[in-house]
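Expect sequence, tokenised fold; for instance:
***
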Amino acid sequence: MNVHKGGRRRLAFAEFLHHQSTGGILLFASAVAALVWANGPWKEGYHHLWEHTITLTFDRYTLRGTLHHWINDGLMALFFFVVGLELKREVVGGELSRPRDALLPVAAGMGGMLVPAALYLAFNHVGEAHAGWGIPMATDIAFAVGVMSLLGDRVPTGLKIFLTTLAIADDLGAVLVIALFYTSDISLHNLLIGVAFLAVLWGGNRLGVRNPWFYALFGIAGMWTAFLLSGIHATIAGVLAAFTIPAETRMDEPAFVARIKRHIAAFADLEPNGKPTLSEDQLEVIHRIETDCERAATPLQRLEKALHPLVAFGVMPLFALANAGVELPDDPLGAITSPVALGVGIGLAIGKPLGIVLTVLLLLRLGVGRLGAGITRAHLLGMGFLAGIGFTMSLFVNELAFAEPLLREEAKLGILLASLLAGAIGYLLLRRLPPSAA
């Protein structure tokens, strides 16, 4: 049974990597499209598009925001919901469920957050620019895994798992940073309403409610709206809602296997009706199989499987299109060498690999944790640079950190250039390794 579990885990991980790598390619295409659009003859249309206002009204309650606002605060809440599902899955039954195996990549993720933040603050320790210290802390898992997938067998599977676990821990750290440091004035009244909806979701979990519409209704219509109005960034509601989704099955594996065998035998005993359509008895057996399949799967994994393509191929590319459109300045050298761009760029391209590699080497020297089979220090360094691709989350934090448009544009320039540089260096470092070393 453990062999089967290991096989299923590898298949699920392979599917996860496929979505991440393919989504990373689409994400890259969207970023390039945004840059071309924002610097071409239709650049006014690019900026004007995202400023269109969308208003939602229910009775005397009104939510109003620009299209850019709804993408960043609305659709990205769905992105963070999927991040939360991934986090819970990993904690319950994945790489983060085994402390010994998770210790090294999680610690590397923390080192890869602290060093970039410190380097940023070295360039921007005073003034409004100080608020951008969280920008270079994040790793873009889709981009990083996408680049790694291009390398084929030069990258051992253990390194892909290490990077994925590191990036998931990184996502959790970014969520905590946003929740604790990038919030506006808090409305206690709306916050308490949001917490009440969270309690309802948690209670539904404890009572065995498995219908996704229950969690959609109270999680989106209730908790997300309350958090949006409370001043705590609404994407945090996505992560919290995800952790209330049930992660247990209603039927264990032996019972499921036995019931499916009985259903197949019952279906085989039925007389074929000789028509393209099925008989009522055949449909009834198929319905029983579907019901048992649903009971044998966890709502968390069903939701993650259903939503991951939507986020990877819809939400994230749209976010990139809306946020990566940096209008190149008249003085590019001056913009690149500004304290904000330098802090973000050096934090991502140098701070990330430095923090990750030094943390791992220190823990290995202390005898804490172990690298997976086939992972060398050369692999570790290349992976560290790939983790310096901070695109999606860095752009997201940038929108929260700065109100001044100039600082935002400088930070975006630093994010894009550093992510491109870090990705290229990481790719070339891993590319030069022979397949036998993987």
Observations:
- The mean pLDDT is 85.
- The CA atoms of residues 250 and 295 lie 5 Å apart.
- The two ends are 29 Å apart (CA to CA).
